[in-house]
Amino acid sequence: MRPIEHFIGGQTVVGASGRFGDVFDPNTGQVQARVQLATLSELDRAVENAAAAQKDWAKVNPQRRARVMFEFKRLLELHMDELAHLLSSEHGKVIADSKGDIQRGLEVIEFSCGIPHLLKGEYTQGAGPGIDVFSARQALGVVAGITPFNFPAMIPMWMFGPAIACGNAFILKPSERDPSVPVRLAELMMEAGAPAGILNVVQGDKDVVEAILKHPTIKAVSFVGSSDIAQSVFALGAAHGKRVQAMGGAKNHGVVLPDADLDQTVADLIGAAYGSAGERCMALPVVVPVGEETAERLRAKLLPAIAGLRVGVSTDAEAHYGPVVSAAHKARIESYIQMGADEGAELVVDGRGFALQGHEAGFFLAPTLFDRVTADMKTYQEEIFGPVLQIVRAASFEEALALPSNHQYGNGVSIFTRNGDAAREFADQVEVGMVGINVPIPVPVAYHSFGGWKRSGFGDLNQYGLDGVRFYTRTKTVTQRWPQSVGGTVTDQSFVIPTMR
Ligand code: NAD
């Protein structure tokens, strides 16, 4: 059985806990590797390595740190195929989508190449008589990231790209379900010129997460995963004096106004609802047509589009999506489908019971469609995270606006319309952090930043972009003067707080 180890101090470290997690091939349903689950002393070792390396790394000038990022980007491009196959084999997303996962992380690395410019501080000459003020952004020291299974390349890079470019050392605790790509990324960072200890991967489960949150040397923790865990990570990290950003789950709505281009909208909805088997925090699992006529026309166009979807092994270039990540997750999605039917929603297309020929033990689910879902249903209120699309019919624009606004999650939302005025009003009023206008998956580009509202995000800074730079640095502000004493006499003393009167 292939072992997946830790990566500490620039090398593979064989764990000693005797505890392992199974890593499946979701296409076959078979265990393909076993990942070590770290002991606390292994975490300590990683933190010690990181702390020792970080002191010098913070002193390396930002242009040189940027050059490591440039080289890392080149290596990612060089190894794109290999990384995509590795990612796909553990996650189950199709190869093209696996490349997208890597590419979206790579784009944050590109952003991080601009770190000399991004770290430039502020300066005021003559803030008072002979007084200048300047502020600089300094690295925090050792920081950590805890990542979910669904983007094993992109989300680690959202975090360690800006963090390391800013001069920090990083401890990555990836998902135990697809832990190989993060190790490969760390190896490539070393090859790119990052010093040993600057990026460490500590494999593990919730025990290591708790130890990270309590560790006195770790100054900041970035988390992405499900909301209950995000909330408890946020609380525990804050209680231990850390800076924490914790992104959680989602239930993104696509509002369809009567004037939308329905063919394009349906094409967009199908890709956003079923791509990656719905295992995206920016998937679009809820569609809200406005008016009965829009709902009927939309449903009529959705049905053949769903029938045309091809579910296949993740290496099938023709497949629209592959298996879900685990048997347990598949069973959870199936139980939500049953719950939806029991709650009284109309189960229009049932994706359960699908078996892919030759891969009967794989974790495959065909697409599911529900109609007449209502806001009081548990299957509407909770995140399903599978290939399940729910139609919630709204009678008016106001009702459609209220649905995502009143939902517990507020990650992404989209509106499909040709009416600029309505779209503008919607984007302005909706209580959701990321909005698409005729854009089904509005994940902001690398030089903006990513973050949801309400139970989709705890903490006040987003991932990547300028917020990422802010999260991984703290501001130091220096006020300086060079007074000239006249004949050794002190001419300036005050017991009053300095003011600018
Ligand atoms: P998860 O919450 O199960 O796991 C996330 C991380 O937390 C993993 O590294 C895991 O090892 C660790 N973990 C698991 N149980 C823990 C516990 N009890 N205490 C502390 N740590 C624990 O999430 P997942 O299933 O890997 O990922 C899917 C979830 O992530 C979905 O809810 C999805 O919406 C969300 N997600 C959110 C975003 C975002 O940016 N908002 C992005 C991607 C995924």
From TrEMBL:
Residues 21-478 form the Aldehyde dehydrogenase domain. Keywords: NAD, Oxidoreductase. It comes from the Bacteria. InterPro entries: Ald_DH/histidinol_DH (IPR016161), Ald_DH_C (IPR016163), Ald_DH_N (IPR016162), Aldehyde_DH_dom (IPR015590), MeMal-semiAld_DH (IPR010061). It is an enzyme of class 1 (oxidoreductase). Its EC number is 1.2.1.27. GO terms for biological process: L-valine catabolic process; thymine catabolic process. PANTHER family: MALONATE-SEMIALDEHYDE DEHYDROGENASE. This is methylmalonate-semialdehyde dehydrogenase (CoA acylating).
